[in-house]
Design brief:
Number of helices: 0
Shape: elongated
Protein name: LFA3 protein
Strand content: over 45%
CATH architecture of the largest domain: Sandwich
Number of strands: 16
Main location: membrane
Radius of gyration: 23 Å
CATH topology of the largest domain: Immunoglobulin-like
CATH superfamily of the largest domain: Immunoglobulins
GO molecular function: signaling receptor binding
Number of domains: 2
Oligomer: single chain
Largest sheet: 6 strands, mixed
Helix content: under 10%
Distance between the termini: 65 Å
Subcellular location: Membrane
Strand order of the largest sheet: 1-9-8-3-4-5
Keywords: Glycoprotein, Membrane, Signal
């Protein structure tokens, strides 16, 4: 049997669903964490849950498992074994549980007639950065943003948004405080 493995990321306190894509009808499902059974479902019966996920997980008919209120201890290797009435299939997931997103920090400096804004966040996962300017509907997807000094007025604000998975946090700065 071919074993598929994927690294997945969840955040402490959030609900997390393993990204299971099964295109045939699932007859029987067993989920294991580090080789210990945590959930089991056989057609016509109700799902059963075991161990630390007993009161914090939901098993769906398509085989996907949702863990409610994720904890650091939920990190580990999860194996989904399901039977589609023809053969067994195996999917492996390595779940990493990360801290909640911090608030991004914005710094600014002027250089070559440009205002240079930089957005940083201390986070252990790969972040997406988005800049939005109060006078411009378009967004800029990068960690650093340069604006010509002549384009800046006294009421302009810049917002840095950091995204990871389905979460986002933002910070805002008034550009007037960046000017020399």
């Amino acid at each position: 049997a071919y074993i598929y493995c994927e690294d997945v990321f969840g955040i402490v306190g959030e609900n997390f669903t393993f990204p299971v894509k099964v295109d045939q009808k699932v007859v029987e499902t067993i989920w294991k964490k580090n080789k210990d059974k945590v959930a089991e479902w056989e057609e016509l019966n109700k799902p059963q849950y075991f161990g630390p996920l007993c009161n914090r997980s939901v098993l769906m008919e398509n085989g996907s498992l949702t863990i409610v209120d994720l904890e650091k201890d939920d990190a580990g290797t999860y194996e989904l074994q399901y039977w589609d009435s023809v053969k067994d299939h195996y999917l492996d997931f390595v779940l990493f549980v990360l801290d909640p997103l911090p608030e991004p920090k914005i710094s600014c400096k002027t250089s070559n007639r440009q205002l240079v804004l930089n957005c940083t966040a201390d986070f252990q996962g790969p972040l997406n950065y988005i800049w939005r300017l109060s006078n411009n509907p378009q967004s800029h997807q990068k960690q650093e943003l340069s604006i010509p000094l002549e384009d800046i007025n006294t009421t302009m604000k810049a917002t840095c948004i950091i995204k990871f998975s389905k979460m986002e946090r933002s910070s805002e700065i008034s550009l007037i405080q960046c000017l020399p």
